[in-house]
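Query structure, 212 tokens:
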């Protein structure tokens, strides 16, 4: 019984962080696209912080288990942009930028709680709240790092396409389905985590040390 609780509890503690990270990430894409002149996401109800609108079943499962994954991509029509390649890059980076800002905010709250002893006086509840703050900051960094990988359907592949141009677009178009399958295999075997987790921990540690 104890082992089951030990497995379920961390997932419950990470759930708020996952929902926040997904919502912030996709809202960032939708808001940036809207500011760049494309209202496609807004028209489809994606310019919102409601996580239900942004959940991708497989990506959510990966976030729940591996602490990194993806959400349902925000629809974007580059033809509505005044400068398609530049504006598409801005939209692609807006999501990870929002995750970075969110992680900084939650690390700040964590350190404030530590330095003031704010959560010490409420016992086990304080410990739970602190863990939720930690996981929210960590998962936002994880979502940021993971989405910068240049593999479809992640944001990094849009950035590469916008920089390299037609050759990258052609490559991704031809091999996208195989790359996605490889990505899922690497995730579920834990192989990808060996490379990503140290990066996430490094960024978390760096931000934790420089904030306050």
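Result returned for the query:
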């Amino acid at each position: 019984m104890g082992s089951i609780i030990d497995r379920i509890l961390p997932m419950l503690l990470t759930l708020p962080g996952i929902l926040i990270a997904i919502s912030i990430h996709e809202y960032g894409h939708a808001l940036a696209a809207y500011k760049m002149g494309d209202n496609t996401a807004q028209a489809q109800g994606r310019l919102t912080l409601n996580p239900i609108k942004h959940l991708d079943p497989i990506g959510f499962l990966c976030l729940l288990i591996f602490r990194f994954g993806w959400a349902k991509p925000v629809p974007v029509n580059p033809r509505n942009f005044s400068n398609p390649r530049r504006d598409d890059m801005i939209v692609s980076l807006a999501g990870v930028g929002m995750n970075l800002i969110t992680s900084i905010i939650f690390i700040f709250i964590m350190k404030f709680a530590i330095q003031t002893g704010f959560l010490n006086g409420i016992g086990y509840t304080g410990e739970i709240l602190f863990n939720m703050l930690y996981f929210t900051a960590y998962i936002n960094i994880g979502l940021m790092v993971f989405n910068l990988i240049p593999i479809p359907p992640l944001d990094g592949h849009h950035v590469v396409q916008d920089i390299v141009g037609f050759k990258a677009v052609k490559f991704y178009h031809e091999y996208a389905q195989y790359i996605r399958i490889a990505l899922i295999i690497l995730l579920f075997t834990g192989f990808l985590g060996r490379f990503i987790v140290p990066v996430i921990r490094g960024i978390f540690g760096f931000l934790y040390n420089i904030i306050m």
